[in-house]
Amino acid sequence: MPDIARRRFSQALLLATSGMVPFAAAWAAVRERGGGAQDVRRHGARGDGTHDDTRAFQAAIDALPADGGTVSVPSGDYLIDPVVGVKLRSRMHLAMAPGVRLLAKPNAAERAYVLNAHRVSDVEISGGRIIGEREAHKGTTGEWGHGVMIRGSERVTVRDLHVSHCWGDGISIGGAKVAAGTIVPSRDVVIERVQSVGNRRQGLTIGRSRGVRVYDCEFNDTAGTLPACGIDVEPDAGDIAQDILIERCVVRGNRGAGVQLYKRVTDATVRDCLIEGNRGHGVLALGANDCTIEGNRIRRNGLGGVGVRPGTREVTLARNEFADNGPSPGRAKDGTPRRGKRHVSIAESAVAIHVNADNRYLD
Asked: Which one of 100, 305, 313, 315 has the largest count of C-beta atoms within 10 Å of its C-beta?
């Protein structure tokens, strides 16, 4: 085990045995890599915002030794062609300085990704900003112009990143098709201290995956094409999303639902989040199983606080605080808008939905 991995494992073990965090959560952050080091500037990146630096980034990544290492990105504006994309490799850390901006080059492609982690493992992305090209996009079709694409990968961490104005999702996590149509899900993915703002389709998509952790993030102001959620947990047909934790996040001002749990989702928890001002539901569950929604502040969401739709089973709502959810029924005599009180709505065909007595309704 490389020295850096050994140190991280020791720190994780210390936290776990001290009772500060669950061992599984601590272990999830361990990413192994070697001690190699490359700087994108040494490979020709200019960081002037006008020269295409895509090839320089790729050259720096490809120059890492077999056991991997760190690719450093000094402060600057780097123009990246998402049609080509920066393809990450296993056992690497893309370490961006606080002043880094990756600027997506305008294109007409339906599918294009600034950073692409496809069938890799032990990858970390940290720091900087990704700014998409939705305002300058040259086409009108497609919805897959993502800032970060993670497909069929294991042990991936994205942290301390700001991603905005993408034609599709800020970040998308899902599976990859391999030989004979087999689906390889992503596993052990951590999204931490990320801000995903003003993207067109989703702030974050969690598709075919196992063990995704989303901590201390913000997913705001998604709008442009449906579903337009802050976070959409929605695996494509052929596989599931399982063991999903969304904790201590802010999900605000999205055109669709704040958090959507949509079909083939099992064992998902939304905990201790602020979910407010979304045009759809604060949390919408449709066809999801074995989910927990607890300790959240859910307020001022247009269609209601929590919506539980047909096909959903075994959902528990506990310790949530609800206020001002639901469509306004009109105006009061003094002309001020009335607030709705549609905090929790449950379809008759939903099964085993538990709304605990410790939920609070402030209006």
From this structure: 305
Domain range spanning residue 239?
A: 3-361
CA dist., res. 184 & res. 271, Å (int): 28
% the chain with pLDDT above 90? 87
Span 319-345, mean pLDDT?
77
Q: Can you read off the two tokens belonging to residue 93?
A: 């850390």
CA 151 to chain centre: 13
- Average of per-residue pLDDT values in the chain: 92
Tell me the sheet residues that pair with 112.
145
Which strands form 360-361's sheet, in the order they lie side by side? Answer: 48-52, 76-80, 100-104, 129-131, 162-164, 195-197, 218-220, 250-252, 274-276, 297-299, 321-323, 360-361
Burial class (CB in 10 A: 0-12, 13-18, 19+), 356: exposed
Q: How many domains does the chain have?
A: 1
- 75 to each of 101, 121, 215, how far by Cα in Å? 8, 26, 26
CB 75 within 8 A of CB 98: yes
pTM of the predicted model as reported, rounded to 2 decimal places: 0.90
For β-strands 86-87 and 69-73, DSSP reports them as: unpaired
For the domain that residue 19 is a member of, what is the CATH number? 2.160.20.10
Q: Categorize the per-residue pLDDT at 46 as very low, low, confident or very high, splitting at 50, 70 and 90.
A: very high
**Coil, helix or strand for 96?**
strand
Taking CA atoms, 346 is separated from 149, 264, 296, 340, in Å, by 34, 19, 18, 16
Residue 263 carries which DSSP code?
S
Tens digits of per-residue pLDDT, 157-180? 999 999 999 999 999 999 999 988
DSSP assignment of 311-352 equals T-EEEEEES-EEES-S----B-TTSPBPPP---EEE-TT-EE
Q: CA angle at residue 66 from 72 to 30, to 5 degrees?
A: 65
Question: Given a cut of 50, is residue 23 above it in pLDDT?
Answer: no
